[in-house]
Design goal:
This protein has about 100 residues and is mainly α. The protein has five helices and no strands. The termini are far apart.
């Protein structure tokens, strides 16, 4: 499995478990770790001359760096603002069920 597929899988799995804040954060953190590993592998490929295309290396590196920044910002947002219970309260008003209008 490629590192990119692993990152995507971790984000999707974490999103599926977003109701559990700590699980969500764990999967997102794993995604950042995978992204960092991918950057390291990319650097090794370039330095060993297995990847000789400087433009491709630069483009991939810039995209991975941007993804890492976005993941970090998203994790910060989840840490600060995550409150899945309030989302459910918005959609499911128990008072409406307990006291139906005649």
């Amino acid at each position: 499995m490629s590192y990119k597929k692993l990152e995507i899988w971790q984000i999707v799995e974490g999103y599926g478990r977003r109701i559990y804040k700590q699980d969500f954060l764990r999967f997102l953190t794993s995604s950042i770790a995978s992204n960092d590993e991918t950057i390291d592998h990319l650097e090794n490929l370039y330095h060993t001359e297995s990847l000789k295309n400087k433009q491709l290396d630069t483009d991939l590196y810039e995209n991975l760096e941007m993804l890492g920044r976005k993941l970090n910002n998203f994790i910060h947002s989840v840490q600060i603002k995550h409150n899945i219970a309030s989302e459910y309260d918005t959609y499911y008003q128990l008072s409406d069920v307990e006291n139906p209008e005649p």
